Structure formats: C-alpha cells, structure tokens
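Tokens as discussed.
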C-alpha cells in the first residue's frame, strides 16, 4: 500500500486542490479580512495541540486511502471481505448465533471508507471524499442485495425471525452513543498506530455489518417495515462515526494548523452538516425509544392488573400473555389467562376493564381470553370495552 500521491513535507496538500495562503499573512495579528471575526481565533485551540509529524500523518493516510497501483488490489480485497462478512453475519443472524455475528464483525472492512470520508472532510479533499462516499454506498447496496438473496433462499427452511434479527430493528439513543464513541475510537486508533490492536474491538462495538445483513434479510422476506428499523440503525452508526471521527482528526493534530486555518470555512460547514445529520437521526431514535419505554411500562401495568384480577377472583389461573397496542385509539389490550376455574363473568370483565383504564390513564378496549386447562373443547373468549 502506498501513501497517496502529492503528500510531502510538513503540510499535507492534495495536488487536485490549490494551497491557500495563510490568511494571517499581510495583516496585523488578530486581524481579519473585511473586519470580520479573526479566522485564526476560530481554530486557536488547534495551535495548542501537538501536530502529527509528516511520517505519522502519512502512516495514518496509508490505512485510509487506496490510490495509484494499490487501488485495484485493495478494492478487490475490500469487496471480498465485505462479501464474506455479510454472508457470515446473515447466516449467524438466521441461526441466532452471537458468536458467528461477532466473527463477521471482525473481518468486516466497513470502517475504512467511513473513516476515510471523515479524514477527507476535515482535510478538505473533495475528490477523496467523493471516492470514500462512493465505496461506502456501493458496499451498502451490495451487502443488502446479498443478504436479501440469502434471506429469500432460506425463508422456507428458517421461517421465523431470530432474536438477533429483531434486536436490530428497534434502535435507540443508546445506539447513537455507541456509534459516537466507536467513531472517536476508530479515528484515534488510526492516528495512534501503537493502539492498532484495539481496532477489532472498535469494529465489534459499532457493528456496521449486522444492520446491513438484517435489513437485507428482512427485505428478502418481505418484512419491509422491520427493515426500515435496521436501516435506521445503520444510518445512526454512519452519522455518529463520521461526526466523532472528524472531531478527533481535528483535535489530535491530523490536520495541520495552517490548513485548518486556510480551509476553516469548509471545515466548519462540513462539521455543521455532520452535526445536523446526527440531530436528524437522533429524533426518530428518541421517539422510538420513548415509545418502547411507554410500551414496556404499559405491559407491566397490565400484567400487574391481570394478576390482581386472578387473585381477587380466587380462581386457580395464571396469566399466559399480555399484549398492549397503543398505536390505535382506544388502546387495545389483550390478556390471555389459563386456569381450571370458571370462566369470568361479563360483569367481572367490565369491572376489570374500567379499573385498567384508570391505571393506564387512557381509554382502552380489553379482550380477556380464558383458556380452560382441563376442558378439551378449546378456548373461550370474552370481550369488553371501557372508554
């Protein structure tokens, strides 16, 4: 692997982009063109951190950008590892095997083009930024397509969705926190090569390939609603990594001070766009996390009320299941009870519905399903509504 062309001396400059003069030259210290805010002041904190040496910077760049004679061989290796990792992850998800999914994360090279995109953004290299984005998009499309084919081919043999798949369809703000931390760690490990042994741990933490495999599998099985949740998890990881990695690249001296001053406007715009994308992703995560918390609380209230109903009736029964659907109005509540006693009367069910509506603080439609444990003529269902 070779260092990208056009990198020499203490200042890293892309030949495709002309070097801008130091904006502080030719005017008094602290001065600013047109009486504006001094550009140096906006990045004054950069002057206090240790910059990377040219050798350290080139070493970091070698890990991120594949150019010249190394481009095609490295692209082939990237495509091969992505194909294998997605296939392993998909089979592991279908088999509900955590160990297999972790193995897929270890060989997945997806972090490289994403970190390259962050590095190109803060260095203001549009061509390299575009190339990294293109590789990332093609990897996403190809991975989803491969997982969809595997999901379709195995739909009859493995008709049910595993817990590993379902876990990746409901991302929350916690996943965004993981992505931000992993992005910062990935950029730091890239710059501090002595910490390179930590990169597999970063790959596992951010888990980029499993959401791709999950989305593809669900699409192949026609579960598009659930696939949207998996793609949201992927978008969360991408946005968090790009923003956190960009900040770490700036803070650790990856970007020379002269370049950060000369291109301060472009860098600020790039960081602002990344932050806006993170905020845009955070809103549905917050909404979904709030809905999940509310559903969990509602399930607990209904479970407690159902157990109290059984205890008051004196029946030898147990709560089999509780299902609360708050996405409709009135809220639908289905409680399944199994036992050896008599079927609850309509009056008892009406009172239970009224009490439960008060506990939840909203109108409900209660369906109480009683299944005799001894009688073999099937289940009986009593329905009542409280508004």
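Sequence:
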């Amino acid at each position: 692997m070779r260092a990208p062309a056009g990198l020499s001396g203490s200042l890293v400059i892309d030949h495709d982009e002309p070097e801008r003069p130091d904006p502080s030259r030719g005017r008094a210290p602290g001065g600013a063109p047109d009486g504006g805010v001094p550009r140096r002041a906006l990045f004054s904190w950069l002057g206090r951190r240790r910059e990377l040496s040219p050798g350290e910077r080139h070493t970091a760049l070698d890990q991120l950008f594949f150019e010249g004679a190394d481009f095609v061989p490295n692209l082939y290796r990237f495509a091969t590892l992505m194909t294998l990792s997605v296939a392993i992850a998909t089979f592991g998800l279908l088999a509900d095997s955590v160990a297999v999914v972790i193995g897929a994360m270890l060989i997945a090279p997806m972090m490289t083009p994403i970190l390259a995109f962050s590095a190109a953004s803060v260095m203001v290299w549009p061509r390299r930024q575009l190339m990294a984005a293109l590789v990332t998009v093609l990897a996403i499309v190809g991975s989803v397509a491969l997982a969809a084919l595997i999901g379709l081919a195995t739909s009859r043999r493995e008709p049910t969705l595993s817990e590993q798949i379902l876990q990746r369809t409901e991302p929350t703000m916690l996943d965004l926190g993981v992505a931000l931390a992993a992005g910062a760690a990935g950029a730091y490990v890239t710059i501090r090569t002595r910490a390179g042994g930590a990169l597999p741990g970063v790959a596992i933490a951010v888990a980029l390939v499993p959401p791709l495999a999950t989305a593809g599998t669900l699409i192949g099985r026609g579960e598009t609603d659930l696939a949207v949740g998996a793609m949201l998890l992927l978008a969360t990881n991408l946005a968090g990594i790009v923003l956190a990695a960009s900040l770490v690249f700036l803070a650790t001296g990856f970007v020379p001070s002269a370049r950060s001053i000369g291109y301060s406007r472009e860098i600020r715009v790039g960081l602002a766009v990344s932050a806006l994308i993170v905020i845009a992703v955070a809103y549905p995560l917050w909404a979904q996390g709030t809905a999940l918390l509310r559903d969990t609380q509602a399930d607990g209230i209904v479970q407690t009320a159902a157990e109290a109903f059984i205890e008051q009736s004196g029946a030898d029964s147990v709560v089999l299941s509780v299902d609360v659907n708050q996405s409709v109005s009135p809220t639908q509540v289905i409680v399944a009870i199994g036992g050896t006693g008599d079927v609850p009367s309509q009056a008892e069910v009406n009172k239970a519905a009224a009490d439960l509506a008060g506990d939840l603080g909203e109108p409900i439609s209660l369906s109480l399903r009683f299944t005799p444990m001894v009688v073999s003529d099937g289940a009986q269902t009593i329905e009542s509504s409280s508004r």
